[in-house]
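Per reviewer request, we include the raw input and output of the structure prediction for the construct analysed in the revised manuscript.
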Amino acid sequence: MGVENPEIVQILASFFATLLGVFWSACFIQGIIREGVPKLNQEVKIDDQDLFAAATGDEEYLMAHLVLKEDDKPEVKTPVKQVKPHKTKDGQEAASGLVSLGYKRAQANRLVDDILTYNPTLTPEQVVLEVLQK
């Protein structure tokens, strides 16, 4: 149960070893020659304690450290769209009341916006009375 031709095994082993060496050398030389390789962006600074905790498997330290790092990130606030007062239910009723009194739609919407911006709790009837008092 032996190898009949040990020379063939030796030649194949030398061939694969040479192939692996040529591949490694080509990668190494290409890494030296190539310019413009972007550097890694490390936002999180790793210190010796982090490396020691990772090497020893101290999961408590690593979890506490990661939680603190996540808390440092600023929260992204999404802008809230403001609804114009004349587009609310009460604003539409007040604007339609003013249109029925002879105001143009754009002018009625503008007047309702002006009044409801400063007094958002007014009812549609109070808004119409406020416009008529001006």
